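Hey,
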Amino acid sequence: MPWVESQSLSFAARHEADDADAAARVLDALEDLRERLAGLFERTPYDIAVVIHPRPLMLALAHPWLPLARLVAAPASRRYFAGWFSTHEIHVLAPEALERRASSVPGSREALLLSPEHEYAHLVLGANNADLPPPFTVAAFRRYVRWAWLCEGAASHLSGQTRHLRAAILRRLHEGRRPAFPPAPADAQLLGGTLFSLLERERGAEAVAELATSRLASQPVTLIGRAFGRPAAAVERDWRDYLGALRAA
């Protein structure tokens, strides 16, 4: 199947010819997200290549960091690693492939179809926080893993994925041990976004952007306490209550 290119104001998608309509929808969604994030962040990258892969193997071969990130993640979250990012590109599965990847639980399909937005959110975070990738090196990947609760949590929240992940979050809470605070790297994709959702509910979207762009010289609990305006121990209690409310809903 020949590959073709589709363009929008800020993005250029490379994809198989049969995926032209789906690519147009992806580009429209990315433009909408870029416009929304421009109200929160100083820099929202443009002239971004969006490579839409029809099969997971092609995606994994294009970005060898992606399989490593999946290995770090808890089993309940691995299916949601459906894209990756570099300085001027995002790579994602085609929408049809994302739908095939979804589980039968409510929200899985919706969360996966937001994968392009998730990867673009990573580019915005990296453009506004010098401590976050891209670019990726061995040292940068280690830093990404250490701060995965912030990297993945902010991307999940900003892309809108977190609200669709309730069923997957409940599976993680049911099957695994008590989550760490802030979430450990294995839980970052699912639980990291809940911390940012709680922050936005309490202090607004600007506080989310401020935490996401904080320099990473401080300890995580210091950054979290500063973002919420109260001791991290109090934030942890409220966060665990927030997760408990998801279980009870």
